[in-house]
Amino acid sequence: MNRFHENGDPGYAENSCDLNRFRRESNAYEKLLISGVCERGFVPKFYGYIDLDPAEFHPFFKLFTHGKFKAERTIARIPPKCREFELRELLGSPLYQAIEAMKEIHKAGVHHRDTYPRNLLLIRGNPDRLVWTDFDVATTFTDTGPKDLARSDYEIELVKGFGPALGRLCCCHVEHSVR
């Protein structure tokens, strides 16, 4: 579950880009869910979002009771069989999986915009698989015009650039993190 605590809606940038991280992530996950990307295992399963008053859940959300606005949360299931891995483990089939997953995310009309190895989870199983997480800066689109295609190509090239030279990285938090 990701937690977003805003002290007011930041609104939109001059170029119409949504600046609200909760809205960006929930919009991205809705598109990923509807298009089947969650079900096919390329991203965590999305269950929806909730808007709650932290004061009603005292003392569990005590740290969030002093803001002007309610805390908003997106709920996505992070599988329990994930672990740290080294980027060299991404070479070959896992790297191909990460690229294919990003292509599926793009087909759903979502640009991740935080395309770094730290946002990949390695899920142990038969077979092992990678899932993309952290869509709080993602943008969504409906038409694939030249700018959208260029952004998609750029993100794919970023993923292809992951390699052993980047060193050790922790990409999986075993427990659910609240941000």
What is this structure's SSE topology?
Blueprint: E1 2-4, H1 21-34, E2 45-52, E3 71-77, E4 85-86, H2 93-107, E5 110-111, E6 120-123, E7 129-132, E8 139-140, H3 146-160, E9 168-169
Antiparallel strand pairs: 1-3, 2-3, 4-9, 5-8, 6-7
Can you give a write-up of this model?
It is built from three helices and nine strands, in the order βαβββαββββαβ. It has 179 residues and is of the alpha+beta class. The chain has one domain (2-169). The strands form four sheets. The chain has a three-stranded antiparallel β-sheet with strand order 1-3-2, covered by helices on one side. Strands 4-9 form a two-stranded antiparallel ribbon. It is globular and about 50 Å long.
Put the structure in a nutshell:
With 179 residues, this protein is α+β, with helices and mostly antiparallel strands. It has helices spanning 21-34, 93-107, 146-160; strands at residues 2-4, 45-52, 71-77, 85-86, 110-111, 120-123, 129-132, 139-140, 168-169. The protein has one domain.
List keywords for this structure.
alpha+beta; two-stranded antiparallel sheet; 9 strands; 3 helices; 19% strand
Number of domains: 1
Indicate the structural class. alpha+beta
- Major β-sheet profile: 3 strands, antiparallel
Number of helices: 3
Radius of gyration: 17 Å
- Bin the helical content: 10-25%
What overall form do the CA principal axes indicate? globular
Oligomeric state, counting identical vs distinct chains: single chain
Spell the H/E element sequence. EHEEEHEEEEHE
Report the sheet-strand fraction: 15-25%
The rounded distance between the terminal residues' Cα atoms is 8 Å
Integer average pLDDT: 76
Strand neighbour order, sheet with most strands: 1-3-2
Q: How many beta-strand elements? A: 9
Point out poorly predicted stretches.
164-179
Domain Protein kinase: 1-179
Protein name: Protein kinase domain-containing protein
GO molecular function, one term: protein kinase activity
